[in-house]
Amino acid sequence: MFWQTARFRLDLAQPRVMGIVNLTPDSFSDGGRLDGPGAALRHCEQLLAEGADILDLGAESSRPGAASLPAEQELARLLPVLREAVRLGVPVSVDTYKPQVMQAALDLGADIVNDIWALRWYDAAAGEVPGAARAAVARHPACGVCLMHMHGEPATMQREPMQGEAPALVRAFLAEAAAALRAAGVAGERIALDPGIGFGKTVEQNFALLARQRELLDLGHPLLVGWSRKSSLAAAAGMRDSAPAARVLPSVAAALLAVERGARIVRVHDVRETVAALRVWRAASSFHSNS
Ligand code: HH2
After folding, report:
1. How sure is the predictor about 11, in pLDDT bands with cuts at 50, 70 and 90?
2. DSSP 8-state code for residue 199
3. Which pLDDT score is estimated for 291?
4. 115: Cβ below 6 Å to ligand 1?
5. Domain map of the chain by residue range?
6. Are 223 and 217 in contact (CB under 8 A)?
7. Residue 96: how many CB atoms within 10 A of its CB?
């Protein structure tokens, strides 16, 4: 299986690690760490040295309770870093839901649009119309896109989590989102899908999505999953009061379980530790298949 992105056709025969680069003052686990483009680029280089296959740049936090940022501010944080990051020789993804930001990022050479809104969001006040995000992606000849499931929106999603059987509902949502994008002319191999761990879901629903993750595989698109440092892990690990940055071990465990159940890309803060764990998984997998 491959993931076609603007400049790179990623071979997913082996699982890939997407390293998170948060250019925000307020991200839930690492906000404010990267003060300015210089620090952000050094962080990009460090993640690559640790084995990241993809860099995911995000300039607006989507943590529970986060407010939306004007596109101009998001662009002011993002573009100076993106301009340099696209020279680092790996696919660069932009974590945004705003059509205007997607367009500017793609124009500057971004390889992937990673959208927590699955291309549904538009800014009516700025004259955008429904479908603007999908059109921005469809206009590009080859960029990759990740469509994520989210129930509600970041400002309120954890106050009113989804009701019902998450695995079936998430599957139906992702199937429809991918079909709509393919119908807009985007080749299937450009599209990855993400169940959206922590986005409007209870702890139990997040783990039900992991337990039944294989049900998403027959949608025919690579699965990208992001458990990294999320509070459901702290709840399961008996670390409820832990600082997010202290959740490395549960995060690595979840990434490994997600890969074991078919995820091809894991979105993580702790690249070095995740890469080491995946090497062990790989060694065990090849031993298994050779025996
Ligand atoms: N999670 C976050 C942000 N973007 N994108 C995808 N595809 N999947 C995810 O699970 C996902 C995502 C939240 O994590 P983080 O970027 O660390 O925090 P914040 O949104 O506070 O910047």
Report:
1. very high
2. S
3. 45
4. no
5. 2-290
6. yes
7. 29
Query: Each residue of 38-51: pLDDT tens digit?
Result: 999 999 999 999 99
Is beta strand 2-4 parallel, antiparallel or unpaired with respect to 9-11? antiparallel
Q: Are 30 and 245 in contact (CB under 8 A)?
A: yes
274 lines ligand 1 (CB under 6 A): no
Q: Considering only CA atoms, which of 138, 147, 75, 93 is closest in space to residue 117?
A: 147
Distance, in Å, from the CA atom of 231 to the CA atom of 141, rounded to the nearest integer, reads 38
DSSP string spanning 89-144? Answer: SS-EEEE---HHHHHHHHHTT--EEEETTTT----GGGT--TTHHHHHHHHSSS-E
162: left (phi > 0), else alpha (psi -120 to 50), else beta?
beta
Distance CA 277, CA 105 (A): 32
Instruction: Specify whether 230 is catalytic.
Output: yes
Higher pLDDT, 218 or 155: 218
Rounded to whole angstroms, how far apart are CA atoms 69 and 74?
A: 7
| Mean pLDDT score of the chain | 95
Closest-lying ligand 1 atom to the alpha carbon of residue 114 = 7
Class of domain 2-290: alpha beta
Distance separating alpha carbons of residues 10 and 4, to the nearest angstrom = 6
Whole-angstrom Cα distance, residue 59 to residue 276?
28
The yes-or-no answer on residue 201 being catalytic is no
Q: How many residues does the chain have?
A: 291
- In this prediction, residues 271-285 reach a mean pLDDT of 96
CA distances, 139 to each of 8, 28, 120, 254 (Å): 18, 33, 16, 36
Element (H, E) at 266: strand 265-268
